[in-house]
TrEMBL record:
<dbReference type="InterPro" id="IPR037035">
    <property type="entry name" value="GK-like_C_sf"/>
</dbReference>
<dbReference type="Pfam" id="PF13660">
    <property type="entry name" value="DUF4147"/>
</dbReference>
<feature type="region of interest" description="Disordered">
    <location>
        <begin position="93"/>
        <end position="116"/>
    </location>
</feature>
<feature type="domain" description="MOFRL">
    <location>
        <begin position="336"/>
        <end position="434"/>
    </location>
</feature>
<dbReference type="GO" id="GO:0008887">
    <property type="term" value="F:glycerate kinase activity"/>
</dbReference>
<dbReference type="InterPro" id="IPR038614">
    <property type="entry name" value="GK_N_sf"/>
</dbReference>
<dbReference type="InterPro" id="IPR025286">
    <property type="entry name" value="MOFRL_assoc_dom"/>
</dbReference>
<dbReference type="InterPro" id="IPR039760">
    <property type="entry name" value="MOFRL_protein"/>
</dbReference>
<dbReference type="InterPro" id="IPR007835">
    <property type="entry name" value="MOFRL"/>
</dbReference>
<feature type="compositionally biased region" description="Basic and acidic residues">
    <location>
        <begin position="98"/>
        <end position="111"/>
    </location>
</feature>
<dbReference type="GO" id="GO:0005737">
    <property type="term" value="C:cytoplasm"/>
</dbReference>
<feature type="domain" description="MOFRL-associated">
    <location>
        <begin position="19"/>
        <end position="252"/>
    </location>
</feature>
<protein>
    <submittedName>
        <fullName>DUF4147 domain-containing protein</fullName>
    </submittedName>
</protein>
<dbReference type="Pfam" id="PF05161">
    <property type="entry name" value="MOFRL"/>
</dbReference>
Amino acid sequence: MVSIENESRLASTVGRETALACIRAGIEAARPDRVVADAVGLDDDRLRVGDATYDLSGVTRIVVVGGGKAADGVASALEAVLGDRIDAGAVVTPEPGEGDRIERHRGDHPVPSRAGVEGTDRVRELVADADEGTLVLAVITGGGSALLPAPAEGITLDALGSTTDALLDAGAEIGDLNAVRKHLSTLKGGGLAELAAPARVVSLVFSDVVGNDLSVIASGPTAPDGSTYADALDALERYDVDPPAAVRERLERGAAGDLPETPGPGDSVFDRTHNHVLADAFTAIDAAREVAADRGYGTCVLSSSVRGEAREAALTHVAVAEEVGATGNPVEAPAVVLSGGETTATVRGDGVGGPNAEFALAAAVELPASTTLACVDTDGRDGSSDFAGALVDADTVDDVAAARRALANSDAFGYLGDREAVVDTGATGTNVNDLRVVVVE
């Protein structure tokens, strides 16, 4: 069960309590134990994944591999469903538990670590041993890009990490970040499917990507890659990132045609690969909407794909809240307005911030009376902080100038923490992007 550690202090009004209930329900709905139990089933030699069914009568070996923030929970849920039908497995995750059939290895996020490389090496060993009679169940969840590092030849972990760090600090969108990482790695950009061929690969995907682009989630280890070495170079240029010499050299060699591209659409390595998105941002939004409706609120989903700079997206949400109160559009008050997606926060100072903290603080400066906003990352970790996000209303900001200074210094959590407005869930074991709840009384 998802726990909001400081809920009793935060839930001081009806609007705040409703916002927290919606947040809790949204995160809970996206937890792997619930999602896998609903989506995956085994009946003798018939494996059900979503709407698809796979015949296991000719399968000689089932191997589970993968990584990401939700990988530990997915592994446990698969063990509960498949039991001893699983022959071997390994996943890499930030907080590994204990498994009966699937090894759990520790990795780090958002910057890859040596521990992650070692765990990924085990994943590669298991996949490389697969043959035509093997069923590879690939666990692909948000955070897998950093947690499954397999640096390409000539690229050190430090070079990969520093490049990733620089792009994150520059506010790079996930597609641009992953275009670079795919071309510096061996498993990303369809590399896992390529290594597993000719085995059948069935991917169980928890999406933390706007639009559920399979080539972007965890940098697409089982999906065709439409990006190129040239795209990776372009991303570095647009975000003004000067990478280590080995990184630039590899990308330039690839762009010149001296290195093979990642497998793209139509490549035969994907002939026996099947990807299933089991949970995404709308999974959380839908559960939150149900809670709001049960409490008597009108509901409106703005979008599950909100992106761009957090502080700018926040003002759009404030404008919607103002419109609800003034005209009853797009829904009459009392109302709960919901959105998901993934905004970015360009680092402008040396404070402690994150996209959800910036979103919340920028909104709090402008929020009308009788309006509450909860804004969290469903994995429980927002940006560089140890918090999921924040809960604010029109009374949170008592010093507008100080709030604006905090935003200018990328220190939204500093300001919000002093006002006991942060939401603390700890690591939730899932990751389906941001969830935002605006309650208009």
